[in-house]
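Alpha/beta hydrolase
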Amino acid sequence: MTIATETGHVTSADGTVIGYHRLGAGPAVVVLHGQMESAHSHRQLAEALAGTHTVYLPDRRGRGLSGPYGAGHGVEREVEDLAAVLTAAHAHWVFGVSVGALVALRAATTLAAVRKVAVYEPPLFADGPAPTDWVARYEREMAAGRVAAALVTAMRAARMGPSIFRAMPRPLLELLTGRMLAAQDGKAGPGDVTMRMLAPTLRQEAALVAELAQSQRNVPADTLLLGGGRSPAYLKAALDALERAIPKARRVEFAGLDHGGSGNTDLGGRPERVADELRHFFT
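Structure:
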C-alpha cells in the first residue's frame, strides 16, 4: 500500500531552508539520517512507523530538499536545523542515525523540546580523537574528480562495508565503486539524491564527527541506544560508553544487522525490526 507523503520546509535560524517529507498519523517523530544518506534513506522505516506516528524525514544540509552549508558550519547549525523542524512538527521525539545520531544527542543536551532520543550507532571514539588523517587524501581525490576513489578512502577510514571490502585490493574496490556510481546515476529520477551527489558532504560530516566524537555524555532525556551485531567494534564500544554514561539509557543490539540496519532494504537494512523497537520506545 502506498502511503501518502507531503513535502514541506522550515527556515532555520540562519535563514537556510530545511526541507522534509512527512507521512503517517499520530505523535510526531523526527528522523535524522546519517552520512552518505538523505531523507529517502529511511523511507521504509517511516512507512513502518506511519500507522502509529507522524514521521518527519528532513534532508540535512547540503543535500536533497535543503539548502547548502554556510561558512563555519558545525554542530550548532545542525541543532538549529533540527530545532526548526521540531517546532514545525510539534515534536519531542528524535531518532538519529550515525552522524545524525551525534546531532540528536547534542540536541538532547541543549533543547528542552527533546524529551526522548533514540540513536543508531553514533560514531564516537571512546579511546581518543576521531581519525582525520584520511581527509587530505579524500580532498585530493575529490578535487581531481575521482569520486569513486574518494568514497573508498572514506569508507575504509570509517571501517564500513563488508569485511571482504576491506581485504579487497584498492584498485578493484575503486573499479566496483565506480560501476556502482554509474549504475545509480543511470537509474536516478527527478529528486533522487545519488551517492555521487552525496560524496562532497563527507567533508562536513568528518568535521562534525571530529567536533562531537567525545562530547556526548551528559544526556538528560530518555535514551534508546541501538546497534547491529555485525557493526565495527568501535561503534559497539561507543554504545558501551554511552550506556554507562547516560542515566536513562536502554540498549538493544540487532543480531545480523550492521551500520545500515535502520535504512532501506535495498542497501541491506531491516527497517521493520528497528521500527518495532522505536514504536515501543516512543509510546
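Residues 135-201 form one domain.
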